[in-house]
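Example S7 (structure tokens).
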């Protein structure tokens, strides 16, 4: 029987913040309905000439990824450290990451990233709400594991 597994619960994401921490951070205690999400990337632009010829060209684009964590996640301390460092130094803190998805036997390496947006504090509702952070990556490299 083929194993067509699609669980994300056993996914492991590590974040590298070389300017702040000596070792990669394993992110944990994700949001309830969504942990990580990448926007679709427009890779080509096209133009139709006036005589009806379609022309296409590759255009490099960044990859925007949103990470969502429970308000009780221990990973928030590290994300807040990035936020604070960017504010105090008035410069982008360079990030790297690796996402391993055992259920699909895939690994994704994210390079040259920076935190673009972030939740500065949890919203208070009936309970504290999840917090989201957006990281923009220069490149993402998929591979098998």
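Recovered sequence:
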């Amino acid at each position: 029987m083929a194993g067509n597994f699609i669980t994300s619960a056993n996914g492991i994401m590590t974040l590298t913040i070389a300017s702040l921490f000596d070792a990669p951070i394993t992110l944990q205690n994700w949001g309830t309905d969504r942990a990580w999400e990448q926007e679709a990337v427009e890779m080509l632009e096209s133009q139709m000439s006036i005589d009806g010829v379609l022309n296409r060209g590759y255009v490099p684009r960044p990859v925007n990824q949103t990470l969502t964590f429970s308000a009780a996640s221990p990973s928030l301390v590290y994300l807040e450290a990035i936020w604070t460092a960017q504010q105090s130094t008035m410069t982008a803190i360079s990030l790297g990451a690796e996402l391993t998805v055992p259920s699909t036997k895939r690994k994704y390496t994210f390079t040259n990233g920076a935190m673009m947006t972030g939740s500065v504090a949890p919203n208070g509702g009936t309970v504290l709400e999840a917090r989201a952070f957006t990281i923009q990556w220069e490149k993402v490299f998929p591979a098998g594991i």
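Notes on this example. The helical segments are 76-89.
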